[in-house]
Automatic annotation (TrEMBL):
InterPro entries cross-referenced by the UniProt entry: NAD(P)-bd_dom_sf, ODC_Mu_crystall, ODC_N
Recorded family membership: Belongs to the ornithine cyclodeaminase/mu-crystallin family.
Subunit and partners: Homodimer. Binds the thyroid hormone triiodothyronine (T3); T3 binding inhibits enzymatic activity.
Name the UniProt record assigns to this protein: Ketimine reductase mu-crystallin
Substrates-to-products reaction catalysed: (S)-cystathionine ketimine + NADPH + 2 H(+) = (3R,5S)-2,3,5,6,7-pentahydro-1,4-thiazepine-3,5-dicarboxylate + NADP(+); (3R)-1,4-thiomorpholine-3-carboxylate + NADP(+) = 3,4-dehydrothiomorpholine-3-carboxylate + NADPH + 2 H(+); (3R)-1,4-thiomorpholine-3-carboxylate + NAD(+) = 3,4-dehydrothiomorpholine-3-carboxylate + NADH + 2 H(+); L-proline + NAD(+) = 1-pyrroline-2-carboxylate + NADH + H(+)
Gene: LOC115213112
Enzyme class: oxidoreductase
MF GO annotations: hormone binding; pyrroline-2-carboxylate reductase activity; thiomorpholine-carboxylate dehydrogenase activity
PANTHER family documented for this protein: KETIMINE REDUCTASE MU-CRYSTALLIN
Organism, as annotated: Octopus sinensis
EC identifiers of the protein: 1.5.1.1, 1.5.1.25
GO cellular component: cytoplasm
Family matches, as Pfam families: OCD_Mu_crystall
Length: 258
């Protein structure tokens, strides 16, 4: 069941190092049928004089930067050469994650499951992924799993996941959502982008009361260990700084400024 709450989210960010101020505006209308449920724009200002520099498509940036962070988490937390990828969902984030992960890793097989069977078939036709009839079938041999559904009820169960699997939980950025079974979350080593934000907003943590082992930045910086031979989970909520630096990159490439 999908979240049926209409939202307008505001994500401001200032980066002195990047000389940029940016704010992402996001609307979420889960009941949309003929148009996407999410839309977004990023408004970019100069931090030198406050001048409006650009309004950039936030939907594309959100999809790409979310998947890029997942690639980084997978690089540090999965087995060294993952062979089987399972994607739960068939929407925008599922497609962006397929593109980013298959560009960065050499998978011998990609499985997909979606409650929307027509979308799943289109996903399979477009990507070559194997469309599975059940989630269990999709994930049973997976080295890397991505959940990208926005479900209010757990979809991924502990008994279906083999030892040493890395899970990227992307689709539960609100307390009303939960994609991963609480027992699986508690039995995994959990990493997040930001401690405070994760405990405040993550549906997975809210439901499971699992402990967070570390931030992915701490793993990259060597302050926290990664455990490639154990079940690990990266809970992705997104951060405004990711939108800010992505918007700067787009603006710079277009104008050669900043």
């Amino acid at each position: 069941m999908l979240v049926c709450v209409r939202l307008c989210l505001i994500m401001p960010c200032y980066s002195a190092a990047d000389n940029i101020i940016a704010t992402k505006l996001v609307t979420v209308f889960p009941q949309n049928k003929d148009i996407p449920s999410h839309d977004a724009a990023i408004v970019v200002f100069s931090s030198t004089n406050g001048k409006l520099l650009s309004v950039i498509d936030g939907t594309v940036i959100t999809a790409m930067r979310t998947a890029a962070v997942t690639v980084i988490a997978t690089k540090y937390l999965s087995v060294p050469e993952p062979k089987v990828l399972a994607i739960i969902g068939s929407g925008v984030q599922a497609r962006s994650h397929f593109a980013a992960l298959t560009t960065s890793f050499t998978f011998s097989q990609v499985n997909v499951w979606s409650r929307n069977k027509a979308n799943a078939r289109m996903f399979g036709d477009d990507t070559g992924a194997k469309v599975c009839g059940t989630i269990e079938e999709a994930v049973k041999d997976a080295d890397v799993i991505v959940t990208a559904t926005g479900s209010k009820q757990p979809l991924l169960m502990k008994d279906w996941v083999k030892a040493g699997t890395h899970i990227n939980a992307v689709g539960a950025p609100l307390g009303e959502c939960q994609e991963v079974d609480s027992e699986l979350t508690r039995s995994s080593i959990v990493y997040v982008e930001d401690y405070e934000m994760a405990h405040k907003y993550s549906g997975e943590l809210g439901a499971s009361k699992a402990e967070v082992f570390g931030e992915i930045g701490e793993v990259i910086g060597g302050q926290k260990q990664n455990f490639r031979n154990k079940n690990t989970m990266f809970i992705s909520l997104g951060m405004a700084i990711e939108d800010c630096v992505s918007a700067k990159l787009v603006y710079k490439n277009i104008t050669n400024n900043l």
